[in-house]
Each structure stands twice: as structure tokens, then as C-alpha cells.
Amino acid sequence: MNPRLPRRSHSNPGSEKRLARRRTLRIESLESRLLLAGGLSAPALENANTVQFRFDYSNDTGFFNDHPERRALLEQAGRMITDRLNDTLDAIPPSNSAIQWEAHYTHPATGANTKLPAGFSVAANEIVVFAGSRNLQSLDFPGGGMVRAIADGVNTPFSYSCPATTQAQCTAFGETITTRGEGVTLGANAVDFAPFVASLTFDSRSETIDAWNFEDGPLLTNQVRFLKLAQHELAHVLGFGVSSSFIARASSGEFIGPQADAAYVGAGHLPLNGGHIAQSVLDEQPTIMTSSIQSSGLLSEIDFAVLDDVGWQVLEDQRPAVSITSSADALPEDAGAFELTATLSSPHPTAISIPISLRGTAKWQSDVGSTSGRFDFAANETSATLSLNLVDDEVYEAAETLTIEILDSVHAKLGHRSHLPLTIYDDDGFDLAYVPQTDPATIGSRWSAPGDSQPHGIVFRAGATETLRVQAIGADPIKAGVLLYDQNHDIVGSYGAMGLDSAQLTAGDSYVLVFYPRTTADEFQIDLAGGLNSVPARHNVLLPADVNGSGSVTEVDALQVINQLNRSGDDASVDAPAVTGSGYYDVNGNGLITAVDALRVINFLNTIAVAAEPLAGSLVPIAATVGLVPIGQSRESNPVRDPEPDRGLPVPSQQNVSPPAPDASASGWIDWDQATRTKSIDHIFGMSIAADPSKESGPFEASDLTGALTF
């Protein structure tokens, strides 16, 4: 604490031998601890020559006495604080015949104002804390906030009298019990704080106990770190928010102290919310001294800075700093294992373990798991790794977030990067075949993904070997879901929390950008030197057999391929001059337009038919032959025109590729399912092709043909 100031004299004009003084040293009124959350390490050696807590469990009804691990954790919380305090406090002897004193405290099990037991004394450098539990439901906020714990200090009546001493002796005892050898601790001029007794009460309701993490191991979503909560309350015991020296530095919603000003990274003085640090500070730096404790850490540098300004002599934190890095900020669900790396700023002489906290919408073990949940450092090593595994299930899930946070402990403080946000993109959320398409011709360097609760896909072909980057502009990471699929339906590229960081495209290959469903529109920056529409896409990555991009596969798609074959002549390249329109003619994605592409469409339709799922209303004229689609006509409903005579095909009658739904019994029409089961491909297409009859009712492959397609 601050250097000892001159002791004040207490006098009573009525007597030099009998003195009575009342001092109220209220540490904190009852208040709520609303928590939004969101292996015991070997303790550091205590320094018996400086301040320390002595926990008294005589009032406990089993919360601590039946659970030694909880006692050990509470005592560790106290040691981790007092190991950084270099203060000394005078002893307070028990009452005797010459000097008598009494004080009251809050009984942790009953809440009653309880007189300290006869013969009670406080050793030098000691603060006695009565610890226990009771049901704190009566203190809950009307709006539903649960009170998890409360801290109270000395209650009234607090008095002392000197029936058999001199004035000087009584005055000296009065200063001992109020200042314990420190400076001014009471009133507007207080610069120090010197408590000698307090109480801590923890909520005993089952829902609170079930939420607490008493092992201080891996911390899961909605778990509450008991060690953190204990430190928060012990800081109040030390005067944070309640001591006269704190109140003297609080003004207009700010805490004004040299150490806090130096530690606060924001502008101006440290913002307050009553006896706590304002919640907004959490956006700037770690603290657990907000009224709603959202951090998983322990007392931070700004918290200790306030204690320093309250009057405690705070030592520099000698623990090494630990930081965390990851191999990725965003991963698809099927990514499997990924590695986290923790680094210490300096080695520790013995092996140590540092646990992690996992928070977010992703669930432990069902979405992500690990065999350890902590970083294990070997002696004198500064690096440790932890492997986490993503669970690839078949359940539709929106993009999920996971914040991985290392927990400061007795062995290490938090470094420059103590947490990592991870976005997990579901790979089962939708079938690519059902993703609505967006025309790449309408996409510029910026595009607004609609907030219509459905995915959107942009099929495109790379015009050159170049890098693609797609980043959300101002969107939350969980809403920034975008994936790039190649034509094999493999997810490619490197992803971050805001989208696709980079993907190397291969010239001529086809891809699809899929934007996840969202309820509100989000804008994306799309960086690609040539743009998404530099060359026409000829392979539909979403649904390859959907040649015309209508979102479904019908006989029209097969006819579209045949029409283009008629145009292309001998040049099968997708980039041939005769390839026109916007059709996805390259069904198998090999860069060529051949009869195999038409057969792929037939196979797709035939598979549906064999599975007893025919396309409703898909009827084709048996005798119809297919000719060229006139240039400039719509690809969805083009009439078939007479083929050129030199192609060697029979001249068809004028037919419409997409006829109105006919009467099933009408002459000249047959259901597509029946056609594919009973007619060979030359009947369907009106071509002179000899096919293996044994294959008539199954999928057609190029090897099934004993003749060649001639045009």
C-alpha cells in the first residue's frame, strides 16, 4: 500500500480511560453477479510475510466441506491474487480486560448479521474470509438475472472500548483495527484500505452448481469458471468498488487513478458502472470486474491497476505470457482434425498444462471434440499443440461459430492473442443440385447476397489461372458463409472468418460459389481479375445434367446438347466458335461437347425412372427427331427446325421440344419412363444407331453403342 501516514488520534472529552468508537467498514452491499457464459494446477508458494487470505469454513453446510476440490480452487483464487500484493497488515489481538472490541459479519449459510465469535483475532498480514453457500434466489433480478455469489465486509455494530487503558493505548488500538498500520482508510481523503474480516456466499441452487466448472479444466459453452467468480468477489473484499479509497477516485462515471489511467487502453479515464468497470471496456481489453462477467479469464492488468490505486502495492506479473494461433479461421465441417498452437513468452522449469475455453453455437463433442482440452507444455518448452476434430455429421446446420480461448492460470498470463474465432461451414446443409443459380453476368466486384433464407450459387469458368477472393463487408462471421466448389464437388480454397481468403483457379475449369442462406442481405467483395463472366461457363457444377440451367433435368436438356452438336460439327471444344448461347453443354466436365454428354443426361433421367421417380409430365414424341435450335431463340422452348439434308437424318415434322401436357392415352405419345425402358436410344432421338438390346432398360454409356453417331 501507500507509505504509512501519520496516525490519527481519537479522543473522548468525557474520559481518558474509557473510550468507545464505532467504525463501519462495509465492504459491499448485496448485489447480483449475472454471468453470461458463456485439473487443478499446483499453487504458487505463499509469501507469509505479505497479505494473504485465511478462509474459514466453520459456517459452511457442505458446499466446501463436502467438496475439498472446491476449497482448493477457492484458496488458489486467493493465492493468485495475494501473490501479486506486497502489503503488510498489523495483527488485531482478541478482546481482553483492557481493550474490548466486537464486529459483525454476514453468515454465509443464513444471511444473518452475526457477531464474531469470542476470542476472535486476526494474525498479521491476514484477512479472514468466512466462506459458505445458501440459496440466493431472493436476490435475483426481477428480469431474471441470477445472483451467483455475494461478498460482504464488516457489518454494524462495530465498536471498541478501552475500560483499562490510557488514552494513547486506546487510540493506538483504534488505529490498528481501522488502518492495520496503513494510511488513511476512511472518509473522503482515504488513500488505503485495510480489511480484516469478510464473507463470501455462493449460490447453492442446483442450476448454478451444475453450471460451474470446479476443475478449472476445459471450459464449455454455458459453463461458469468458479475460479474467475471467486477472484471477482475477492477483489471486492480488497475494496474494489466499495472502499472509501475507491469511492474517492470515482467521479462522474469514471475511475480516476494514475495506475488505472496508465493501464486503460481507451480514451480518457476508465469508465465505471457503479462499483464495477463498465461493460463497454470488454470491447477494448480483458477484465472480470464488470457487473456481468463475460470474460473467462482471471483478474487482468486493468483490474490490478484499480487495486493499486485503491492502495494495495501491486507487484509486476512474473508469469510468462501465452498466446494461441490456429491453422485456419474457418473450416468446412468435413475438414477433420485441425491444430492449435500455444506459445509461451518464456519457458517454465516444470511441465505445465493450460486449459482452454470453448464458446459459441458449435457444441462440444457433437460438433467439435478433443481428447485433451488443454495445452501440455513439457519442462523448459515454449510451444505446445492441441488437436481438435470437427465432427462431420449428416445434419443440416447453419454456419456455426466457435471461440477458442486459452485460460490464464497460476502458470501463465494471457498474451497478445488469447482467443481465436472459428467459423464452421456445414457441408450437409443443402444438396448442390437444389441451389438456385445466379447469372454471373449480373455479378460485379460487389454483390449483395439476398436475405431470403435460401442458398445461392454462381456457376462460372475460370478464364485464366488466377486467384479468387470473396469477403463479406461488415457482416458477422457466422453470416459470412461462402464456399467454393470445383467441378468434382470438392471444397477448395483457404477460408477466414469473413469468407474466402483465397483460391487458386485453373484456367478453363468450372466452379461454383455457394452463398449460405441468410435472413438479411449481406454485401460481398468479389476480387477476380477477369471477373466471374470472363468466359462462358459450359459445365453446370451444381447439377451437371441441367444443361439449360432451369434448376431441373428434363428431355429438353438432352436435346440442347444434340442441337449444339449439330452446330459444332467436327470441333468438339467448348470454346469452338460454333458454341453459342449460355447452355452448359459439357455435362461430364472434360472440356468437350460430345455424344457422351447427351448420354449423361439420358442416364440421369433413366436413373430417376428406374428408381420409380419419373418426372411428372415428361412425355416425348417417339418419332420426333432433333434438329438445330435457331440462333437467337430462347433455349427453354425452341421449336425444332428441319435439319440440313446433308446430315443424313430423316426430316422431322415440326415439333416443340417442350409440348403442353398431353393426354397420356393420346396417340403418338409415350411416357418418358416407358420410352427409356422399351425403346432404344435411336428411337428416342430418331437417329440411326445400333444399340445393344441388353442395355435398353439400363443407363446408356458410350461403350454400349455398336455404331457411331453421324451428323
TrEMBL record:
Top-rank taxon: Bacteria
Basic and acidic residues bias: start-end ranges: 638-647
A Pfam short name: Dockerin_1
InterPro entries: CalX-like_sf (IPR038081), Dockerin_1_rpt (IPR002105), Dockerin_dom_sf (IPR036439)
Molecular function (Gene Ontology), one example: hydrolase activity, hydrolyzing O-glycosyl compounds
Location of region: Disordered: 1-20, 633-668
BP-aspect Gene Ontology terms: polysaccharide catabolic process
CDD domains recorded: Dockerin_I
Biased composition (Basic residues): 1-10
Protein name according to UniProt: Dockerin type I repeat protein
Organism: Allorhodopirellula solitaria
